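Troubleshooting: if your tokenizer reports a length mismatch, compare your output against this known-good record of 247 residues.
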Amino acid sequence: MELTLWAKTNGTLVNVLTVLLGSGLGVLIRGRLPGRMQRVIVQGVGLVTLFIGFSMAGSLGSAAGGAVDGVILGLLALVLGGVLGEVLGLEERLERLGDLLKARFRGGGGFTEGFVAASLLFCVGPMTLIGSINNGLVGDPTLLLIKSTLDGLSSIALAASFGPGVAASALVVLVYQGGLALAAGGLAAALPDPASDPRVLLVTGVGGLMILGLGINLLELTRVRVASFLPALVLAPLFWWLAEVLS
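Known-good structure output:
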């Protein structure tokens, strides 16, 4: 039986709604919080983001390709992906998109930072990939509903600090996550068991390292150019395939 468009994308649509609602609530309380409280909120999100990143990065230990360890594959994907991202200027392109949305919606200070941070946090992770496949293939939105709750809570904290730029990330969630759900038929043919597939585990691990970088940025420890590493998510399964062939 062919699933309806709603059945394939209901998890994504709920996710978009929770991000918008959470962002709205965050913006409402933003002006009522002193600066030190806003910093503490962002630091709390940053610490939890580090935990999520560490948890995801552990997947590299189960993502070996032939005789090559998953950590090595992740390192190659991250370094070469970062170089490619710098050549393509992905960090600047994402920032320009945030600035464009800022001008369009007359966002205040921190708009672009909130947009970039929220877009990466909400779209990089195993729940996004596996949840979208499950939703689009069999109409099961369970994982995306759990993700929606987490994203909604995170958007409150982020918007309380950065402002309405966080709400703009809902557009990225809609396009990216919804696109994955609609393309789930083709993905399912290549990934019959996505939860344990080494290619998914490798992408999850690399994504976890990127999430760690985002957490470091939120804590203002240094400035990691997270968006530049986005090509690593595409290179990771390619390197796994090469390792399998060469082994």
